[in-house]
Design the sequence.
């Protein structure tokens, strides 16, 4: 379910484009134009609902990662053998890490996300009687989420640190070695995928 939402969010961010930039610009230029203000707010309500979805996904990732790490790191086997025994979980975690990096890369290339939300939050502060899709308290929290250049990676990092602190009886190397192995496997799979696209016949060849 989380991976499905992650894929959907990735497609959504990739197509976010300029967001409400034009509508915001007109609303700023014509502060007394009620129609321009309303048009900007209507569009922003839809966009902010999407941004809220991204934030809530980061919270789900933060809750899910410790559960995955426990399954992968708490076994009696060395990290590489443990991952071999839990290949399905390992692949899902690798896909999750890939999403985290991909989302943050897209987010850094989409300044409209933060610009749109900043304007929306200022509007909420000015007009407390307006109709908004989120409460001001949540808006403040999401603003901090967007302020990070890599918000999904921050969520993943926080979850990992909390896992290590909570499970201090586990050797830290269990966690670090597990993560390193998963990332290496993910990079290797990406190389194979790229090579299979480059080599005639579609088969991956190791050089």
Sequence:
């Amino acid at each position: 379910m989380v991976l499905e939402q992650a894929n959907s969010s990735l497609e959504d961010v990739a197509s976010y484009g300029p967001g409400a930039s034009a509508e915001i610009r007109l609303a700023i230029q014509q502060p007394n134009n009620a129609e321009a203000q309303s048009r900007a707010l209507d569009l922003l309500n839809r966009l902010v609902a999407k941004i809220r979805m991204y934030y809530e996904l980061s919270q789900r990732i933060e809750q899910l990662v410790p559960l995955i790490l426990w399954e992968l790191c708490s076994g009696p086997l060395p990290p590489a053998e443990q991952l071999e025994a839990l290949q399905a979980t390992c692949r899902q975690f690798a896909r999750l890490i890939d999403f985290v990096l991909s989302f943050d890369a897209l987010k850094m290339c989409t300044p409209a996300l933060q610009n749109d939300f900043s304007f929306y939050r200022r509007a909420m502060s000015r007009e407390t009687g307006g109709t908004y899709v989120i409460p001001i308290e949540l808006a403040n929290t999401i603003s901090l989420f967007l302020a990070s250049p890599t918000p999904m990676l921050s969520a993943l990092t926080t979850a990992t640190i909390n896992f290590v602190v909570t499970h201090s009886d586990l050797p830290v190397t269990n966690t670090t070695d597990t993560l390193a192995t998963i990332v290496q496997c993910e990079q290797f799979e990406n190389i194979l995928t790229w090579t299979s696209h480059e080599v005639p016949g579609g088969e991956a060849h190791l050089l």
About this structure: The two ends are 37 Å apart (CA to CA).
